[in-house]
Model the fold of this input.
Amino acid sequence: MKYVRITNIHDPLFKKLHDLMKEVFPAEEVLEYDLWKEPLEDPGIRVFVAVHEDQVVGATEYRYYTNWNIAMTDFTIIGKQGLSIGRFLAQNRLKDLHALANENGKELFGMFAEIYDPYKQKDHAFGGVKPMDPYVRREVLSHLGYKKLDFTYVHPSWENNGEAVSGLDFCFMPGNDDLNELPASLIVEFLTTYYSVLPNKPQEWLEMIAKLKEQETVTLLPL
Done:
């Protein structure tokens, strides 16, 4: 299995990746094909696929922010079972992020991720791919060290229609497992930057950000 970075919308592997995304994710979570051109060419956005026998069987997209020394996992896809794709992606991603942090003269502080809460919203089929089942993914991410940030989370739809997407928790995997809170200002700055690409912000998201601005810290809870 190979860990291959995609940096061009015309890469044949990207078509396979986009088809895989449409198979496993709800429509509001998938950016339109043509809108991927700039993200793929952005050196700060890292899109890697797991290639097995010339097929894209998994993928992960993530970013490293030098100013905050944190990363964000945009998505992880496991397209087949029985190939240890999840571990393959997680290990290679972390190796890459540690290298980026090292180039920045630091040790990685941690990584954000949006994680589905199937106990609240149970209609995510994810293309019938069992390793992508939200219950399975949530437990795996807990094993990796992710913790839930203690606030009610929504995000703007990637369809850019002004709708709020719920049913997820905003989580953080600290480099130091003893860390039990984050500055609320860091969360606000990060989310404001991360979703700056979507101009149509739902009212629920704006209210969430306003509440966070009133806080000093946000507690990290077990996932």
